[in-house]
Amino acid sequence: MGRYLLRRLVTLSITLLGIMVMTFFISLVVPMDPLAALAGPQAPQETVERLRALYGFDQPIYVQFGRYANRLLHGDLGVSFQTSRPVFQDILKFFPATLELATVAIIVGVALGIPLGVLSAVYRNSLLDQFCRVLSLVGVSVPIFWLGLVLLLVFYFKLGWLPEPGRLDIMLLEPERITGVLLIDSVIAREWEVFFNALRHLIMPASALGLFALAGIARIVRSSMLDVLSQEYVKTARIKGLGEFLVITRHALRNALVPTVTVIGLTYGGLLEGSVLTETIFSWPGLGRYMANAFLTLDLNTIVGGTMLVALSYCLVNLLVDLLYAFLNPKITYTSS
Amino acid sequence: MSAKPATLALDVTEARRRRAEARWRYLKDTYVLWRRNRLMVLGTCIILSLILVAALAPLLATYNPYEQVLGDRLLPPSTQHFFGMDSLGRDIYSRVVYGARVTLTIAFLVAAISTPLGMLIGILAGYLGGMVDEVLMRVADVFLAFPRLILAIAFAAALGPGVENAIIAIAVAHWPSYARLARAETLNVRNNDYIQATRALGAGKVRIMAGYIAPMTLSSIIVRMSLDMGTIILTAAGLGFLGLGAQPPMPEWGLMVSDGRQFLVDQWWVSTLPGLAILVVVMGFNLLGDGIRDVLDPHQRQA
């Protein structure tokens, strides 16, 4: 296990180097001059040159890469063109909102997806099973930005049941920032009105993302439950007189959860990408919307820094999932033979 | 089992006949499996209609998809304008019909770029092994380290908005998974007897890879590609929606959803109807992909 972890960490660092080269490459292929765009169309050439020197774009490529790598290793992602603040600070500022949204969405996905998948497998080909399969199909096929718009149209504009896009009503003040996650901060500050308001604001975006999570989770739970239920040891458990409920929850589900954990981990990573579109629709002040704006305005430092951090967290989630997998399934050992 | 030493070597016409028979049986089995899988039939119908709509767009469209009649802007759906009019007075139904062409073109081109590229790299890595394998797979790992949509968005933003760049960006995000798959399949067959025999007969590396290994990787690549089709279309639509993909006035569905956003409250049809088209088509591809996977699965065939 220790050696496996070491090997994974070595490959991870090689991958990180690759990610660094790649993000640098992305910033190189930009055909338009982002600095000219930043300075504005009327800016004299002099200003553009000065900006170029300021951001170090006047140096040869290998010098730029050296500087870039050096900066990254010191945790410096540069200054964002849009906000004029260090990209790293911006990311810290916007990340909790995304984390909050993605976490609530994955909770929704797991809380509904697992029971739905189990029931669907147990009552195979029943009406519930059909419903579950259709729901999974729709969940993976629906364009999330469209789903978001439809939810807004129905529940905000037409029915008025749910509040407008954003994290809080305009009238409410954010509680003192401790974690940046409103649901937690408001509990700490004992501002219950803020808590419930934030929760209401979360319903639509978290459902949109949650449906996507639910689809994948219900699908894998269903198929692995079907696998497990047909095995001998489940039959044995039944024969020895265990109740159906215990057979399903204690014997079958536990094994079916092993592949499910992988999917949950990957889905959580996938919610990071889904958040770019969802946050745009719901004016959610998170990393996704910040990145989308950066992409549109060609805010290079933010694109590079943000992409890099997303890739890093994606890799870490994958690593964690693999380790958890070994932990859950004693049959898998990561020793080199 | 009766002794007939004279026919020990199967004569050529007999062998041919048997082979033809086997092929025919395979096709028939495929057809039976296809018919039995009702969802796959539905998926096939959706995709066939998509192709048909794209091919017959000029006949099906009731108006010119680019023509603006500003006096009729934002008209609700009616018998004249099935899906209503958009903010520039263009017929939404006709634009959705022409959008089928855009979507199909994007999906086809992404597949045409990313699968051969992935196969080439995967087969090279798997067959040559050693350093080549190590380097190529590390490169693939770097690409796989990014969430696909983020990578596609980053490339699309860097290359500049436009449908061609969106296609390149999506293909860049997709080739590594095909490379992984092709490599795995190559490792499976590279030491098989028939490859050894070909090698013994003096076939060169290129010949073996192109003529004897590539065909063996094809079926799993096709399955994966058909499963990916939906994602590719969703990514393209997402790029269009963000303004990083197809540019106005192209009748691209994602872009049309985005155009209608500001009229959501009073003119819901402008953005919801093109989005519905995306949903149906992606669903069709997903159903078809699941079905193809099942039909090509040998375990299913025995049943």
Notable traits:
heterodimer; A: 337 residues; mainly alpha; 13 helices; globular; B: 303 residues; 12 helices
Walk me through the structure:
The complex is a heterodimer of chains A (337) and B (303). By secondary structure, chain A is mainly alpha-helical. Chain A has 13 helices and no strands. Chain A is globular and about 85 Å long. Chain A starts with a helix and ends in a 9-residue tail after the last helix. The relative contact order of chain A is 0.14. The mean pLDDT of chain A is 85. The longest helix of chain B is centred in the C-terminal third of the chain and has 38 residues, at 205-242. Chain B is 74% helix and 0% strand. Chain B is mainly alpha-helical. In chain B, helix 9 (205-242) runs antiparallel to helix 11 (269-296). At the A-B interface, helix 1, helix 6, helix 7, helix 11 and helix 12 of A face helix 5, helix 6, helix 9, helix 10 and helix 11 of B.
List the helices and strands and how they pair.
The complex is a heterodimer of chains A (337) and B (303).
Chain A: H1 2-29, H2 34-39, H3 45-55, H4 61-73, H5 87-122, H6 127-141, H7 144-158, H8 182-188, H9 192-229, H10 232-239, H11 244-281, H12 287-297, H13 300-328
Chain B: H1 12-36, H2 38-55, H3 57-60, H4 92-128, H5 130-144, H6 148-159, H7 163-189, H8 193-200, H9 205-242, H10 253-259, H11 269-296, H12 298-302
Helix pairs in contact in B: 2-4, 2-11, 4-5, 4-7, 4-9, 5-7, 6-7, 7-9, 9-10, 9-11, 10-11
